[in-house]
């Protein structure tokens, strides 16, 4: 199956991988800025998000995303769970990935603390009770930072509801195919962005990666929650473009 995706602009390719709270629409404020700056932006819905149904057999998110690209080099911008996929791609294909921008990224090494476990437990309890709207509200409150507009919160609510509708309609998701790789094999220039209003686990992930990746830049922003690209695109887009250039 080919992932739902779209391509905008001409020039060096930038692959955008969304957070697992939302779908590829999270990049709506980013795509015009990339295209205007002379990049070719490729964004996709991973399986079980947006317009991409869940798989019926084992799959791998990194392989699915790579299938959308040609043979040449590319950059990646990954948000949260999409950042974990970006890290896998860059570790398995270091010669192809020129630049990584990781926004509040997850990783294979993420160790959930009490606050993150409490969010997951509360979400599961709400879903088991059939309170999908409550689970949506929980995620919007948790993951959207204080500087986001009401319109942005409404957009995240729509996307998160779509995630639940797709994934809860399938009795059991097939497993992902696992590969062996090491983050130390990544050679791409990497920008690790975290925010003051996010859970501490994501800063811990970024701090760890900053010590592992050979060409990493660390940036902590005071106005960021978990989804900076849609919370304040006016502030984040210049950061993205400066690093990609």
UniProtKB/TrEMBL annotation:
Q: Look up keyword Nucleotidyltransferase and say if it applies.
A: no
Describe the location of the AB hydrolase-1 domain by residue ranges.
12-233
Q: Keyword annotations for this protein?
A: Hydrolase
InterPro entries linked: AB_hydrolase_1, AB_hydrolase_fold, AB_hydrolase_sf
Q: Which Gene3D superfamilies match?
A: alpha/beta hydrolase
Pfam families, from UniProt? Answer: Abhydrolase_1 (PF00561)
What SUPFAM superfamilies does the entry give? Answer: alpha/beta-Hydrolases
Cite a single GO MF annotation.
Answer: hydrolase activity
Q: What is this protein called?
A: Alpha/beta fold hydrolase
């Amino acid at each position: 199956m080919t992932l739902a995706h779209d391509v905008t602009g001409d020039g060096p390719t930038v692959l955008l991988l969304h957070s697992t709270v939302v779908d590829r629409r999270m990049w709506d404020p980013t795509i015009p800025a990339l295209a205007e700056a002379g990049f070719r932006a490729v964004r996709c819905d991973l399986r079980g998000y947006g317009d991409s149904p869940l798989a019926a057999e084992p799959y791998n998110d990194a392989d699915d995303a790579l299938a959308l690209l040609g043979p040449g080099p590319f950059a990646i911008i990954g948000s949260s769970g999409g950042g974990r996929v970006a890290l896998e791609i860059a570790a398995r294909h270091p010669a192809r990935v020129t630049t990584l921008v990781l926004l509040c990224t997850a990783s294979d090494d993420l160790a959930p603390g009490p606050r993150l476990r409490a969010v997951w437990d509360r979400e599961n309890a709400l879903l088991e009770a059939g309170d999908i709207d409550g689970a949506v509200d929980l995620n919007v409150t948790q993951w959207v930072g204080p500087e986001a507009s009401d319109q942005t919160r409404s957009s995240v609510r729509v996307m998160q509801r779509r995630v639940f509708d797709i994934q809860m309609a399938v009795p059991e998701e097939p497993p992902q195919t696992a590969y062996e790789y090491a983050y130390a094999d990544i050679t791409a220039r990497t920008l690790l962005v975290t925010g003051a209003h996010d859970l501490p686990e994501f800063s811990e992930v970024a701090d760890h990666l900053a010590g592992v990746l050979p060409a990493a830049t660390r940036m902590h922003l005071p106005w960021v929650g978990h989804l900076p690209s849609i919370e304040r695109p006016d502030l984040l887009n210049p950061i993205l473009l400066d690093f990609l250039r």
